[in-house]
Specification:
The radius of gyration is 38 Å and the shape is rod-shaped. It has 2 domains: about 5-145, no CATH class; about 185-350, 2-Layer Sandwich (Heat Shock Protein 90), CATH 3.30.565.10. About 65% of the residues lie in helices and about 15% in strands. By secondary structure, the protein is α+β, with helices and mostly antiparallel strands. A 5-stranded mixed sheet has the order 2-4-5-7-6. The protein has 8 helices and 7 strands.
Length: about 350
């Protein structure tokens, strides 16, 4: 919606102040320079400048409703010239009618008529150019706003797509495990189905939440780990350490689960012995650190993996923070694979209550 310049209170006050100052200046000039009485001076100045002000308002409104794409300068010149002729002739007939018995004033007015027309034309032209600039800047602002909105919607759509693409992989694995358990341990299969239902219910609940607290994310991860414990039984040990002062800090929802899933997958691959997955959460200098550690055999290579999980996480972090280095991986000397997430804490969302 187009905003008229004079609908802005500050501009309205400034314009009114300038108009009053110009009216008084013209009246003072007529009185002291031309030696007309105060009555004649103020009447002349009031009528002339009132008509000029009305013409400026008309120009502003006309340019707000319509501005041609081509030949805009010609359009402005025609409007300005037409309004100038209208106001100077109205002012002439009004003033000469009021002061019809003052020959000296009539002679002065006729002498200054062309100069009055030039001043009026210049004032209207300046007003028209100022309004064109105003409406042009407003149009650019609206265009940039629409572009930003479109970009945000596209980014949000991509984020949602990335989040939802991560879930089927885990779901298929879990369903395969449930199928296997129904044949060897129906009771455990029932437990796993219950936990899987709770996990998926939490996933659906999170669909509209871009940011969640560390406490909520760890509850979500715990459900996931409970399911994996059913799948892998005694082979999987979990150690979770969460610092108390991080519980109300925030992070993008469903970000940690693919990393933990990766750690379990590669930690257990090609081994029948028990392993320990370690998750540490701490905060350093207003940056939330989430560290996932799993054993890693450099001589073993898992097959069939696409690496989509970590790639999707990197993309999500880049979309949110425009920083490609918030996800880091390293292998320590004792063959421990470590994945570290760094989540900057913004001032307006440091804590989620």
């Amino acid at each position: 919606m187009t905003t008229r310049p004079l609908s802005v209170p500050q501009i309205k006050k400034t314009a009114l102040s300038i108009a009053l100052a110009w009216l008084i200046l013209c009246a003072v000039g007529l009185h002291y320079v031309v030696n007309f009485s105060w009555l004649i001076s103020f009447t002349d100045s009031t009528i002339t400048n009132l008509l000029l002000a009305l013409a400026c308002i008309s120009v502003s409104n006309m340019l707000g409703y319509y501005q041609p794409k081509n030949e805009r300068i010609l359009y402005v010149l025609i409007i300005t010239l037409a309004l100038t002729l209208v106001i100077i002739f109205i002012a002439k007939y009004a003033l000469l009618y009021i002061f019809t018995d003052f020959k000296e004033y009539k002679d002065f007015y006729n002498f200054s008529f062309a100069f009055r027309g030039l001043i009026s034309f210049m004032c209207l032209g300046w007003c028209a150019l100022a309004n064109i600039l105003w409406y042009r800047l407003e149009e650019q602002s609206e265009t940039q706003g629409r572009l930003l909105t479109a970009q945000n919607l596209a980014k949000e759509a991509e984020l949602n797509k990335l989040r939802h693409q991560l879930q089927p992989h885990f779901l298929f694995n879990s369903l395969n495990s449930v199928f296997a358990l129904t044949m060897v341990n129906p009771k455990e299969a029932g437990v796993m189905i219950t936990k899987l239902a709770s996990f998926l219910r939490g996933t659906l609940k999170r669909d509209d939440e871009l940011w969640v607290s560390v406490e909520e994310e760890m509850e979500y991860i715990q459900l996931y780990l409970d399911i994996e414990k059913v799948r892998f039984s005694h082979r999987l040990n979990i150690e979770v350490n969460v610092e108390e002062d991080t519980l109300n800090l925030c992070l993008p929802g469903t970000l940690l689960q693919p990393i933990v899933e990766n750690a379990i997958k590669f930690g257990l691959y090609n081994t029948s012995s028990a392993i320990t997955i370690k998750v540490d959460v701490c905060v350093e200098q207003d940056v939330l650190h989430l560290r996932v550690q799993n054993p890693f055999d450099p001589d073993m290579r898992a097959t069939g993996g696409t690496g989509f999980g970590l790639t999707a996480i990197k993309r999500r972090l880049y979309l949110l923070f425009a920083n490609p280095h918030l996800l880091q991986t390293e292998i320590e000397a004792n063959n421990l694979y470590i994945t570290t997430l760094k989540i900057p804490q913004k001032n307006d969302q440091n804590h989620i209550n």
